[in-house]
Amino acid sequence: MYKRILLAILGLLIISCSQSKKGGPFNYELVKSKLDLDQNQTELFDKIEEEHTTKIKTVFEGEGTKIEKLKKAKAISAEQDQAIKNILSDTQFKIYEKEIAIEREGREKHNMQLILNQLQLDSLQTVQYNMANKAFYTTLVDNHDYYHGKPDVYRQYYREIDLNRQKVFKRIMTQDQYETYKSLEKEYKIGQSEH
What we know:
The protein is 78% helix and 0% strand. It is mostly helical and 195 residues long. It starts with a helix and ends in an 8-residue tail after the last helix. It has ten helices and no strands. It is globular and about 50 Å long.
């Protein structure tokens, strides 16, 4: 479990480096939009997020093995969560915990699960859907060096490997299911940056 969480953090950090945006790998604007923050909380949240995102980026740009970097990043994330907890109400923090967990695991992966829940696939189709997604995201992360720091290359590579996933989906789904998937794919902005 611990290793899976660390790998998820690494994967998201890797994917994020292909995108030039403020705020690191996570969509903090989306998280904040769900918290109903006042002005003071917003300013404190932004300061905490920026400080900890910078620390994590520094860790990954520094020396050490991936595992060492992941351990340091996990500790910084826990420190950030505690700092955020100190500025939120209990209700707000419960929402934050849920949303940041989704961000750290991967919002797009989460959305692909939400899509699955709406497709009414049978058990075999569900297994195949999950295998296709796992293969897709594993390939994307494993080939990080190919698109590191190159947003256009990342988007092109994403589209290329997504073609294989789409072929699997088309093969395992009925026509109606696949059309529903394509509609939900647009609704959930799969393959599009949420930032």
